[in-house]
Design goal:
By secondary structure, the protein is mainly α. Helix content is 70%, strand content 3%. It has a three-stranded parallel β-sheet with strand order 1-2-3, covered by helices on one side. Helix 5 packs across helix 6. It is globular.
């Protein structure tokens, strides 16, 4: 077994100090064996180890790679580092599977940047210790600040490094553009109070119109996107976004005004969505698109595709699916190398019943991006709908391998386990999910289903009641509580709960279940009416046909 000792102290190399050193050891050897494994992880390697970029050409490229930094308006979110870490782990696993196991001793792991700490956690979770053994070495941290490559931190979404090194740099002077960058990084890692303080500081220290508009816009976004939903305030956000729009509306240069004002109008659209005013939001996005088309011909293509994608989202909310699909397609075709809008378009295609096209979009995300948990999770839903329970289970397993905090995957895997009789794993998944989000109504609903399957009726009722208290629009909660009532012979309670579920969305399954209850209650006429309607919704359902022949 090969043995290497590497230093993780972020003061030596910033983000991915450890990963860059490990890649420097492995990548040249991997390239000697052929380019395929390295090429399959080009994005991750180039992000973590800039010194290897000459040796690792970019195979997967997006529009941003061709544009000046001033036009790259999409800054990666905080979750991107997890995708990079997973991709790097898959590269390491693939390489060591060919060359043999490795023992890695990591010095100063406690001084690692967030990116390296996350990378080590992923390696330990996803690689067998017989293939990669990781030992913690001595701690002899260096002195002095972290290297400050602020452009790299912004471009790659290294928000923790931007926050730490930026705050350190701001102690030595008043740099408002840097202050705004650091505040944005703090917001991205859910340190919104500190971000708000910096935006207030920017307002005290500058009179530049664009900078003040940026601070006003960003303050509004904190107020509508705060990770603690109880601290969101759309009305206060409206006041701040109007401040930004007032300023950018007065910018004298038409090109500059079109971009900055369009950006702020798009932000106000989100505020209006949170205020329940979707039509107003649509008008704002349309104004921003009109500005870009009139005054930014051939410029700011990413800004334009973001606007079209946002209009698509609003159109989909309004039930105008075909128009929404056209806008998503516009965004995808404008930047075929950017994965996120394939995901959004795939979701819409699935909603329209065009599952083969949706599958193609989800698998495009898998090809274009470092490992993206949402793509596997969404594909699992397609596979489940098609009756491929094993495929759905495999995708959910992989989703949780990539991100053990992906709560919706626990919900769906637990539900799948209930359906297949694996109650022990279902309970385990529910408990894992509830440890992350204790008030998740979907998890509580599945917990009720597990308790019901195990014959623990009082506990099941408590779980269903709690789920419905948290989300009265949870159709599965009403349907499951109806099943509990039916098993106890309380037909009227079961019918009442099924009626609530059907009010939220008529399905053949719910109608069939209510028909079963009607028959048990001696109300054959109502049972037949429900079965006839179920047959209209699902004409090929054999259970419905059989039940109709019996009433």
């Amino acid at each position: 077994m090969d043995t290497i000792v590497l230093d993780a102290d972020r003061r030596n190399g910033g983000p991915y100090t450890l990963a860059a050193a490990l890649l420097g050891h492995l990548v040249p050897r991997a390239l000697e064996r052929g380019p395929d494994l390295v090429g399959a992880h080009d994005i991750e390697i180039r992000a973590a180890a800039p010194h290897l970029r000459d040796a690792v050409p970019a195979r997967r490229r997006s529009l941003a790679d061709e544009l000046p930094r001033s036009q790259r308006v999409l800054v990666p979110g905080a979750r991107r580092s997890l995708r990079i870490a997973n991709g790097l782990a898959e590269f390491v696993r693939g390489h060591l599977a060919q060359t043999g196991p490795l023992a890695l001793t990591v010095a100063n792991l406690g001084e690692a940047d967030h990116t390296d700490a996350e990378f080590v956690a992923v390696l330990r979770r996803r690689l067998d210790s017989g293939l990669l053994r990781i030992d913690e070495g001595p701690s002899t941290p260096g002195t002095g600040p972290l290297p400050a490559d602020f452009d790299r931190y912004r471009d790659e979404g290294f928000h923790h490094a931007m926050a730490e090194s930026g705050l350190e740099a701001l102690r030595g002077g008043q740099d408002v553009p840097l202050l705004l960058r650091v505040a944005a990084a703090l917001e991205a890692i859910e340190r919104e109070d500190e971000a708000r303080e910096l935006y207030d500081r920017a307002r005290r220290e500058c009179t530049d119109p664009r900078q003040r508009a940026t601070a006003a816009y960003a303050t509004a976004m904190i107020l509508v996107r705060h990770h603690d939903q109880g601290r969101r305030d759309p009305e206060q956000a409206l006041a701040w976004i109007n401040e930004a729009i007032t300023i950018t509306s007065l910018l004298p240069d038409p090109r500059e005004r079109a971009f900055h004002l369009g950006f702020d109008l798009n932000g106000k659209a989100l505020v209006e969505v949170r205020r329940g005013r979707r039509e107003a939001a649509m008008e704002l996005v349309q104004r921003a698109i009109d500005l870009a088309e009139a005054d930014l011909p051939g410029e700011h293509p990413i800004h334009r595709l973001v606007l079209h994608a946002n209009r698509a989202q609003l159109l989909a909310m309004a039930g105008r699916e075909e128009e929404a699909l056209a806008d998503y397609t516009w965004a995808v075709e404008a930047d075929p190398g950017y994965p996120d809008y394939y995901l959004d378009r795939g979701n819409l295609l699935h909603r329209l019943g065009r599952d083969e096209e949706a599958l193609a979009d989800y698998e495009a995300v898998m090809r274009l991006s470092p490992p993206f948990p949402e793509a596997y999770y969404n594909r699992s839903e397609l596979r489940f709908a098609a009756g491929d329970l094993a495929g759905a289970r495999a995708d959910l397993d992989h989703t949780l391998e990539l991100d053990p905090d992906f709560v919706p995957a626990y919900v769906n895997r637990a539900g799948l386990c209930v359906a297949t009789g694996d109650h022990a794993l279902a309970r385990h998944d529910v408990e894992r999910g509830l440890a992350i989000t204790p008030r998740d109504p979907h998890l509580l609903c599945v917990l009720g289903q597990v308790e019901l399957a195990d014959g623990r009726y009082p506990e099941a009722r408590v779980a269903f009641d709690r789920a419905l208290e948290l989300d009265p629009r949870l159709a599965a909660g009403w349907a499951s509580r109806a099943e509990l009532a039916f098993q106890h012979g309380d037909h009227e309670a079961a019918l009442a709960d099924l009626a609530r579920a059907l009010e939220l969305g008529e399905t053949a399954e719910l109608l069939f279940n209510r028909a079963v209850v009607y028959r048990a209650a001696g109300r054959s006429h109502q049972a037949r009416q429900d079965l006839l309607r179920a047959a209209e919704l699902a004409p090929g359902d054999e259970d419905v046909k059989q039940a109709l022949s019996e009433v």
